[in-house]
Amino acid sequence: MHPVLDDLITLLQLERIEKNIFRGESRDIGSAQVFGGQVLGQALSAAQHTVDERVVHSLHAYFLRRGDMQAPIVYEVDRARDGGSFSSRRVVAIQHGRPILNLAASFQDPEPGVEHQSLMPAVPAPEECEDILQAASALVQKMPELMRRYMADKRAFEMRPVAQSQAAGGATKNVWVRAVDSLPDDPTLHQNLLAYASDFELLGAAMIPHDMPLAEGRVIMASLDHALWFHRKFRIDEWLLYAIDSPNASGARGLARGQFFDQAGRLIASCAQEGLIRVIDGADKPPSDPKLQS
Questions:
Q1: What are the tens digits of pLDDT across the range 55-68?
Q2: CA angle centred on 165, ends 161 and 170, rounded to 5°
């Protein structure tokens, strides 16, 4: 397996300290603090370690503080409820004695039911699209050195942007994404990796209607919350289309929504995120952009 992907899988597996307490490490992807998708994936992994057979169908999380890449993260799981068909878990991620993320996740016994779904956008196939390094080369060159190095050498996922557009009242963007190598047949692993990858690209859609490149250093962006729903089985080592739109920005916050489709057009997951978007006027410069956004 590709060493970077193998390292990410190890990162998401966690160390069990006690029955409901787990510990995880962090990796530097060139941002100013721990990547939010990493904390999401690890918190979900902690919850999964306390559930037998049932499959996660949704999670809701709040980012409370920046994560310190030099310190381990402790995950405390509250086994809130195990019912006849569903199990609920609450997870708190802790560093330096303070919570940095709260997450709630719900698990269900698989069962059949009625079905419908949104249609997949009509976009070029991934084979017809350039890798993000080529498609957004000008933007990549303006990124901090550590982030450029991550994009070039240490990615666990391939990303191929399709198109982005601005419509009345909002914006859309589409990105093909998949793991850089084949993965084991473990559905929980694919869900953890999708939780990690869902934090890429999402909030950046809220900046499309505004002619304000992040590289100018005039914008502070940070995730505030994140929701993710799993609809159908999937493999993240096969191409998934991440279709993103941003219906609103106001009050120094932007809202973005995402849908993941496989190449057969099946909607396999949906997500939503609101984040801080604070514009700095004058000579004051904000901290480094806290996330990989394009």
A1: 999 999 999 999 99
A2: 125
* Residues 103, 77: Cα–Cα separation, whole Å: 9
CA distance 290 to 151: 15
- Concatenated DSSP letters for 128-194? GS--HHHHTHHHHHTS-HHHHHHHHH--SEEEEEEEEEEETTEEEEEEEEEESS---S-HHHHHHHH
Structure-token match 């962006």, residue found = 221
DSSP 19: T
Q: Report in angstroms the alpha-carbon separations of 279 from 149, 173, 194.
A: 27, 22, 30
Each residue of 140-185: pLDDT tens digit?
A: 565 556 555 555 667 899 999 996 666 656 689 999 999 999 999 9
What distances in angstroms separate CA 215 from CA 139, 140, 183, 236, 266, one per listed residue? 8, 10, 35, 30, 36
- Find which of 13-27, 147-161, 198-212 is predicted with most confidence, using mean pLDDT: 13-27
| Dihedral sign, Cα of residue 18, residue 33, residue 142, residue 125 | positive
Q: Which amino acid does the sequence have at 130?
A: E
Q: CA-CA-CA-CA torsion for 180, 182, 184, 185, nearest 10 degrees?
A: 110
Helix (H, G, I), strand (E, B) or coil at 85: coil
Could you list the active site residues? 199, 223, 273
